[in-house]
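Margin note from the TA: students keep mixing up input and output lines. Inputs are the sequences; the output is the structure of the whole complex. Example:
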Amino acid sequence: MSQPVVDIRNFNLKYRNQTVLQDLRWTIHPGENWLLCGISGSGKTSLAKAIAGLIKGSGSIELNFDAQSARPAIVQYVANWYQFKDLEGQSNFYYQQRYNSQAIETTATVQADLQEHGTRHQLSFAEAERIAAALNYTDLFSSSLIQLSSGEHKKLQLVKAIWLRPQLLILDQPYNGLDTLSRKNLNTLLEEISASGTQLLLISNDAELPSTIERFAEIREGQFQEVAYHERTSTAVAHSGKAVPSFLNEAPLSHAADHIIKMIDVNIRYNEKQVLKNINWEVKPGEKWVLQGHNGSGKSTLLSLICGDHPQAYSNNYYLFGNKRGSGESIWEIKERIGLISPELHWYFDPSATVWQSIASGFYDSSGLYCDPGATKKAQVDELVHYFGLDEYKNTLMTELPLGKQRLALLARTIIKNPELLILDEPCQGLDQEQTQHFNQLVDELSKNGTTLIYVGHFESQLPGCIEKRILLENGAVKSVETILESA
Amino acid sequence: MSNYFNTLPLREKLNQLGVCDFMDSSEFLDGVNALKGKKLVIVGCGAQGLNQGLNLRDSGLDVSYALRAAAIEGKRDSWKNATENNFTVGTYEELIPTADVVINLTPDKQHTSVVNAVMPLMKQGSTLLYSHGFNIVEEGMQIRKDITVIMVAPKCPGSEVRAEYVRGFGVPTLIAVHPENDPEGKGLAQAKAYCVGTGGHKAGVLNSSFVAEVKSDLMGEQTILCGLLQTGSILSFDKMIEKGIDAAYASKLVQYGVEVITEALKHGGVTGMLDRLSNPAKIKAFEISEELKDIMRPLFQKHQDDIMSGEFSRVMMEDWAAGDKNLLAWRAATGETAFEKTPAGNVKIAEQEYFDNYTLMVAFVRAGVELAFETMVQAGIKPESAYYESLHETPLIANTIARKKLFEMNRVISDTAEYGCYLFDQACKPLLKDFMTKVDTDLVGKNFNEGKDGGVDNRTLIAVNEALRTHPVEVIGTKLRKAMTAMKAIKTA
């Protein structure tokens, strides 16, 4: 039998005196494609990074590439977080900068970025075009990197990785932010490259996987454990059992208006590119909406108008909480009434704040905490820290935590002020199924108090139960508005 | 027009130089009310103009942009910046007569012509806002007596002004009311409201004067901020080449080193920066920076003296009149230095390595910051002002060097700063000639600690720490930084 591609023996990894991986053993033989799943924070990302040589531990990880293969003898690790740089090589981007038309020219276009990648690795550009077409990405070639939504950044990472056809490809949460069709197309592409010699290691909790994935594993208490497909950590989750903190059980302060949102022929364009087209939409107090659409359909831009994050708000005709937008209100008066989480808010969030400070900053809608919140609010933060099971991390810096834990802290931040309007844009990215279900149960609880909800999620199975209405966007226009659940 | 400062009696000179008070947050409880419903017209739409305008509008204020007809017809960048972000844009004639506040955010050099063009169009009792006092103080521009003249100067580049605002914070800001032009006594209230509109009130506001701002700003930018960083970078690079260090490595160490080193300065002052060194390296850096201070003190004093007497601006304005002859020649010469022409190598330099292998720059920065601060304070400028114009701004300038070396720094800073920077650089290099012959690669290019056992004398170390920590720039810095605890870390390469 030929040598294993990856041979891990007695591998140990510690992070800040806590054992993450302990005497871990795992052998990946030629031709095998694996899924690594299991609960958030179990060490999946750490293990993947160690295989890719990005972090070091003790013990041995041996890689044996096939010298005969035409494929590059490398492990390519695609992180669950994207990075990009401006034309000067810096990545000092800031929240909502992408909506500022002046910023467009600060970063390369997708086309230029791909060309640079192709030249560096001596790849044929026609192949990139084929992969991009399969992911429905071709239209974005002329876009500037800073303009991309989180899902579109994810796809760019995937195009580059698949194009490279490395001998071992590790994808960490590749489905995050991808719409249903894109996930399917991605799986087709992955099946194709794995059938022709690239071995796959996926980290994911999703149910729909490339058919070539035949081996499944979890990390349990720092050790590797192969599992049968149906044995993966159970998906049926009991109610968390913890009582929702009482300050969240009060009806949010509402300044009664007929509409929370009323948009009349809203349009957004950059030069020739129209991002939103004649949007008309009304959200009444207490309604629970789901906002859906494929990647790039305009969901984030639509939400940015509601959150006071879009400079073009001032040339459009719409009302928030009964007031015409641009009639002398400040964006902080708008944000005060909204609890927001989105992939971008997370991406740009101040990583040097502690978990506790991050949650408390939700009272002030800031990224990081700049003032003393006072005793009442401090007690509420403590209560929520406990509710989210973050006690042991409360003084830890965000940057030192895995993304799943960071996300939990930001979810707590979103609801801390018990806002009138909750905007949850793919809130559960990076969480495991149990955490997702617990959070959605919490959303259902909060919704009973009269909170208005706008939820963005691609999968019906991952939506909270309280959703009543759906708005579907397609290419920047409203494709349909429908009632899916009659309110009681 | 004659130099305003020089027309003042000594009593009034001292009076205006010696103001700079850190304002309590309770001063801003009235929010943007003093400007609510007023028409704000910004002249110029570059990085400061656009980003301040975006913040003011997001704070509920009415903002539009007045541009020269040529900029509108030519659809220049300023026109694009404003229109694509959905602002009303018009000519001076269209917008200035309607303005309650005219905000002049054009480059220094254009101030006289811009103010001469807008002043006749400004309505009775309106306000003219500057972000720099050069035009009023050094050029002696006289503003119509019914007009209120104020200054609001965010102490950061325009993109930071926006980035900090949208994350719910702001950048430190300096405000002032020109005592000759406050006919209705409303200047301070409007300046404070403007600060709230740009978010500056959350990061600390200094109440200063036009005179104090100009005299300290010029001093800081010429000496520590641009001048010494340029001199130190070029000398360090040349020394490494002379001693056979790989040129690509040397280029990278110098280009990014100053940013990494001053990042420590930003968070922990001179003390924090020196604390990143090993004990032996710290003592060495202390000793050579003492030496550097003695060598450069007369030069720092000369710059301050020329700024105070108006000699600096007189000479510079002569160069403006001569079509920037000297400025352009010096700019070209900077572009030809070996450091500028050697691309940074693709070597990985760890964060700590920038300190260990570039102890010389730590010494340069300490010497420059302390000297600039001391010289300003001796000249009658308050420590708060001197702190902002020396220590606080050093990391911001260092960031521009990290982006694209000295050319980028000189492109980003004002022409006034660039002119003063070259003056300093030319005078400083010969002064340091003897000093530099003694410098070896243990101070620049290689790890200072290599081959040393790390032992130090306790008493020496204690004395060094004491001297660093009790320096007046550290005393005021500790107080001011508390108000800015939330400064964002700059991501480094």
